[in-house]
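Morning. Coffee machine broken again, so started the prediction first thing and wrote up yesterday's gels while waiting. Chain of 283 residues, entered below exactly as on the submission form.
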Amino acid sequence: MYKNLVYEKLTIPHGRLVHLENLHWTEGKNYQTFTHFHELSEIILYTKIRGKTTIDDESYQIHNNTLVYVPPLAVHDAFYIDRDKKWLILQFMPEILNQLKIEDPNDLLSHGFVKDLSDAQTQRLIMLMHWYLEIFKAEGKADLRSALFRTIVSWLLDIMKRSDLKSAPGKKAGGRHQFKALLKLLESQKIFNISLEEAANTMGITKFHFSRIFKRYFKQNFNDYLRQRKIMYAMTLLTESNHSVSEIAKMSGFNDTAYFSKIFKKYIHQTPRNFRKSIFLKR
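Came back before lunch.
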């Protein structure tokens, strides 16, 4: 099912564990994300949208006033239609819950969650998120940011408690957490070429067992995951740096530029050069 599954490295400003964006997408008619997973949790409030999202094999229709919560390492994607699309997305690392002593005794935040909110509920969450956005970059507002974040998550937990979870019981996401240390190692050291046996050794299991459980939870083999991870990193460099394509190929773990271009086109349906041109034309 997950032909384009990737580990998405989302960027949170240095020194912070929370990031909030107010997104307004008008480019083109439709918008589609890769099927992906990441360590962050996401609270998404759609204010102007039509489309669908999938979280761990469960699909949901989304529209105005739909609230979506994505837990860490859940496999998910989204497809939005129409030209004008607006949503707020709050992303946070799970460790901030312990830092701020936010209690989740029923482990609700390990489950995906989708709910259509009332107008009053939507306006309440918009107010809280916009307030957080206003002070996000302000100096000397750490206590207020923490209080607002705690209020938003507590509000979400209250909604979840009073609702039937529209998701599977979260067994897959829970199983994926055994790979968390490995994924962090790969990201922190920018490791792109690691053997199956080396990856298995980080978890203290055989390469055969590692291969089997990795494919069970992530719907692809480990080598495909590494290849797609290289392509995602190359996309970031093509977008955010002035490095040449050959330099980016090497930085992304490819020894041959021609092979890099071939694999890039396989996944992105454009050459690296054309992808870079298309990004700058949109700016």
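The longest helix spans residues 142-161. Going to sketch it on the whiteboard this afternoon.
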